[in-house]
């Protein structure tokens, strides 16, 4: 959606402002790259400017990159990621036009953003709303984000720091239990996040389960969807997580597929497996909010 008309504005005025904002973002991105010695990526400029050959403005299903920026398989590294974040904030030396307010979602896929890149966007989340930068969806998929990046993102989303982001995706980043602990430390006081995706992140066991409990076992959480496919919750972790699932009232969709919740007929392990599934079943009888569960590949 484009900005709404204000008093004494015509649609041509609004479109001109929109075009000016895009032009300023491109200019500020180039300046940011120069200031931090990052390589200017022509794909980003062409995508935002609408100059890509495969852009089809007549396609009703086409995604507008000035609103929803998807960057995949670009070797941005931390410096290139920081340049985009800086251009969004528009507060660098000689930058014009102020912040870029149009982005609703940003997705980085296999862009090698690393912890420093995630930290740059943590800053966007933290101070952006003061200048009307209201990003709703942020994704770093397979971008080499580890525990420090999780820590910075968690801090930026804690205690009302940011109230715009509703979806965070950190799939295929191998930050493990250390990373989720630091991420949840901030998220547990967040009141606006609705969807969290942490697929294939090397999280495992009862410590992983305890972090999930910490996340959903508080009155502030508004999370309705959690996807932790491809980790190793295990049967014992499932039993621990089930305790919080009994009390939670917001979660509607849960994906714990491929989480090593596997039968083992050795007597001691079989007892753990049985107890875990029993606890999970009992939690589902009590929980009144869940509507969809993915339990495949266990």
Q: What does this 3D model show about the protein?
A:
With 298 residues, the chain is α/β, with parallel strands linked by helices. It is 43% helix and 10% strand. It has nine helices and eight strands. Strands 1-2-3-4-5-6-7-8 form an eight-stranded parallel beta sheet. α8 links the parallel β6 and β7. α4 packs parallel to α5 and α6 packs parallel to α7. The longest helix has 25 residues. It is elongated. The two termini are 42 Å apart.
Give a brief rundown of this model.
This protein is an alpha/beta fold and 298 residues long. The protein is built from 9 helices and 8 strands. 43% of the residues lie in helices and 10% in strands.
Furnish the topology, listing elements before pairings.
Elements: H1 11-35, H2 42-49, E1 68-72, H3 77-89, E2 105-109, H4 114-127, E3 137-141, H5 147-156, E4 167-169, H6 176-187, E5 195-197, H7 205-216, E6 225-227, H8 234-247, E7 253-255, H9 267-286, E8 292-294
Parallel strand pairs: 1-2, 2-3, 3-4, 4-5, 5-6, 6-7, 7-8
- The total of helices stands at 9
**Average predicted local confidence, pLDDT:** 92
Helix content: 40-55%
Sheet/helix structural class: alpha/beta
Label the overall shape.
elongated
DSSP strand (E) fraction?
A: 5-15%
Computed Rg:
21 Å
Q: Tell me the major beta sheet.
A: 8 strands, parallel
Low-confidence stretches: none
Q: Give the strand line-up of the largest sheet.
A: 1-2-3-4-5-6-7-8
Distance between the termini: 42 Å
Order of helices and strands: HHEHEHEHEHEHEHEHE
Q: In oligomeric terms, what are we looking at?
A: single chain
- Strands, total number: 8
